Amino acid sequence: MREIKLFLGPQHPGMHGNTSVHMYVEGDIIKKSYLLPGMLHRGFEKGMEQRTWINNIALIPRICVVEPDINEMVFAMGVETLAGIEVPERAHYIRMIILELARISIHLMAYGGIGGPTGHYTLMYHAQADRNRILEIFEKITGHRIYHQYIVPGGVRKDLPVGIEDEINEFLDDLASRYLEIRDLGIENPTIRKRLVDHILLPSEVVWELGVTGVGMRSATNKPYDLRKVLPYARYDQIDFEVPMADYSDAECRVDLKLQEVVQCIGIIKQCLAKMPEGPVRAKMDGNALKFRVPKGQVYAAVESSRGEFGYYIVSDGGTKPYRVAVRGASFPQGLLGVEKYLPGTRLDDAALWFDTMGVCSPEIDR
Amino acid sequence: MSVILMSMLIGLGVALFGFTLQTTIGGINRKVVGRMQKRYGPKWYQEFLDIFKALSKRAISHGWIYDFGVIMAVGGITATAMFMPITDSLVAFAGYDNFFIFVYLLAVGMLGMAMSASGSGNPLASIGVMRALTQMLAYEVPFMVVVITIIKVSGTSSLTGIMEFQQANGWFALSLPIGFGVAFLSLLGMLGKKPFETYIAPSEIASGPMVEYGGKQLGLLFVMHEIATFIEVSLFVHLFLGGASNIIEFLAKYFIVYTVANLISNLNGRFKIDQVVVFFYKWPLALAVLQAIWVLWR
Fold first, then answer.
1. Domains of chain B by residue range
2. What is the mean pLDDT of residues B194-200?
3. Between vectors from CA A157 to CA A155 and to CA A162, what angle results, nearest 5°?
4. Cβ neighbourhood burial of A181 (10 Å; 0-12, 13-18, 19+)
5. Residue A216 forms part of a structural domain
6. Do A119 and B205 make contact, defined as CB atoms within 8 angstroms?
């Protein structure tokens, strides 16, 4: 049979981001594939070296478009560790609320995302409608829908607006009440199950080989490796939640785990709203912000993103700008290495679904 | 001579009516689906605007097979539509509305499109054509078993004859419910509705056969698609819902069948091509054969 070269992206309805996959197919089977990154490369890491610590707050959210808050959080954590800044208690809880809302938002986006590869656009629109309500909440809190620039070194930029707690609670209650309906529309739908169950497997050996973390790892190894539990940041150690996991990672399992995580996120946010103390939301930092200096040193700060461990390795030479920042993109292993080694063997029909259920975020690779 | 000319004019009128009807109902359905998906949806006449816009644009050719195939597709489908009865008394070529004429003539249009798409040279188009032909083989077998059962029961393969039989003895949708269900699934396959949308599959093969089209060729294929949909839905109405004795009845039945198909389509995902084949050759075919045996034995 003749081998044909096909492209998935950068301009393709099935592609999740500005990147391209070159695939060599025989019939419907992918024989060889590789990722062609570089289409979104804006030199984030190098760019950070040329901006002051405070100016970087505007640059870093762009490293992952759909979940920008994790960038703000790891950057803030890194700077706070190096500079010895004590974050106010209320700010910790606000940060957790923002991060968990973002997690729900991206899980909904990924869940709706399976509507694209499977043609179930109703699922996609319904998930996006719910995500849009989260973006509206973000807009009220931060003034921005996508790039919030809200979590900053020392706390958060400003306090929560009056009455937002009620709005968040109302949204969460509504989402929780429709949880089964949301599942019925997608993951319980027989036609969708046909595409997900026993498809696009992620064996535990591959997890260890590539260094996959997050839902991918937890779905394959049955291990509750979640940085919020094993290396708590903010005040996650004071919050009660479970880490969903499984021991057979097919596409259905990974999607299911994301939906289960949404339920956990709802619980976390509700606890945060209940436990959040009054008080300041940002540590007092005197002097000109543009001349802010971070003491010499190096630190690795990491958080549990919706796709796994997401971290910054920051080196400071004591100046007004970072000396070096390296980003550990959570989807880097499966996005770059996995495409080359484990996309081959699957069918052409599954390629877009592979990207969605593996949680690939292409800007994390192009950074 | 004048009778043939008159029949041809009426036939062209039927094709034009079919195009207008389906484009309008298709537009209304886009609005219905929009609301279902928490969107406003476009205006009901958006499909007309899309077609006229495409037809008014410059055409880029990928060779004469590419161009000729489009003309063959539109010509073949228009010719098929000319034979389609609207009601039991409104038929352009009386006595020539045999079911098998539609089976053969529909293939001309479809093959024209397959030829043109393959001529575009895009591998995704070729994959789409291959999938379309495979899917056709899948849904046509159970569908033909059901229709042959209907022909056996009604004693005719003429669509107006089948309509008259149902008007006297009740709809086949009620007397042959299994066949009705099987044929509706086949209709979804014919219309390329989900879960049988495999040969379009935008996220897999970037709309398959349509991938290289633009401008006038795309506009003509839109026209062809609307008329083909009119033929397929009308066939279903005539075979299972008793046809129609007047145009209002036809419009109502047509609208209901197309809208239900569209709603089902938008509540489901897409099968893979191997799943489509296995699906049709399993339960629909088995049920269609069982029903045929039961009807013969009865």
1. 2-60+80-99+122-297
2. 89
3. 105
4. exposed
5. yes
6. no
